[in-house]
Amino acid sequence: MKAMLHQGSGEGRWLEEEDVPVPSPGPDEVLVKLETCGVCRTDLHIVEGDLPERKAKLIPGHEGVGIVVARGEKVSFPDIGDRVGLPWLHGTCGRCEFCISGRENLCREKRFTGYTVNGGFAEYATAQASYVIPVPSSITSADASPFLCSGIIGYRAFKLAESPPSGRLGLFGFGSSAHLIAQVAIKLGRSVAVISRGRNHLDLGLKLGADQAVELSDAPALLGGKLDAAIVFAPSGHVLKLALQCVKPGGTVTVPLIHIDSVGQMDYETHLFHERRLLTVEANTRSDAHEFMHLASTLGIRSVVTEFGLSDANHALLQMKMSKINGAAVLRII
Predict the structure, then answer these.
(1) φ/ψ of residue 145, rounded to 5
(2) Residue 114 phi, psi dihedral angles, 5° rounding
(3) What is the mean pLDDT of residues 236-243?
(4) Please, are residues 135 and 65 in contact by the beta-carbon 8 Å criterion?
(5) What gap in Å lies between CA 150 and CA 304, rounded to an integer?
(6) What is the CATH number of domain 151-280?
(7) Is the domain 2-148+283-332 a CATH 2.40.50.140 member?
(8) 124, 138, 153, 276: which one has the fewest Cβ atoms less than 10 Å from its Cβ?
(9) pLDDT, averaged across the chain
(10) Where are the beta strands (DSSP E) in the chain?
């Protein structure tokens, strides 16, 4: 099969296309023939070395959607022919204090698709059968791919932000995750302010129903102390501090990021006093994934997608790095 392998090359040449054997599913696994795979900012962090290397000659990608074509002898679900998604959470130990208390996203032995095991930048991938996510027939594969990380972890951040019904939610950074969660928040009755450096991102936010689009440098003046909650999607400590300035007393800022640049010094009065809450969000649970996929289908959430071929994965990553992707990037594999 064709696959894009991370070889640690320079900017724009992070991945090399190779022919590699089709993997065989283990007893608890399924083999999925992939149709699409989203390109997530975490993939960029991995190939650029922002995260520690976990696997040599890694096939990245953790937003794959495709058809189950084979399964191990212990698998009773999903069935061959089912369309499923391969999310970031590949597996957990199932027995630690976090797993048994519904917090499997904090398991110390968790494994990640496209990071600790090979992922979806390929024609085929294997996955733990109990961790794949069925994709409803109402959602296309290209739409569903960004749901599998950007959507799911954004949804977890939205839940934990606890923005009140009819409340005002700020989305700082408007890429793949934010453009999905903006739709969810608006359809659930929140008013949404989009905050970004990019005019194209601000325009997309307004098109999707946000009632305010604010250039990042103007955020403190226009939004200071006015948001009930905020989610920070931009991997920037500076943006994080701006978000804290913009929430009301008692407001919550959630941060669904695996990597962020230096936060630097915070001022207690400016950023943290008045019972403001700052909460980081790590990965997701399977419950989050199933909830979001059902909600997305029910509410009619759709991805704004720029498609690339599998061989163009480097170009997609570079376009993402340069903030030229509006919405989400998706690799079309078949």
Answers:
(1) -55, -50
(2) 75, 15
(3) 96
(4) yes
(5) 12
(6) 3.40.50.720
(7) no
(8) 138
(9) 96
(10) 2-6, 15-19, 29-39, 64-71, 83-86, 89-91, 111-112, 124-128, 133-134, 168-172, 191-196, 212-215, 227-232, 247-255, 277-280, 305-309, 328-332
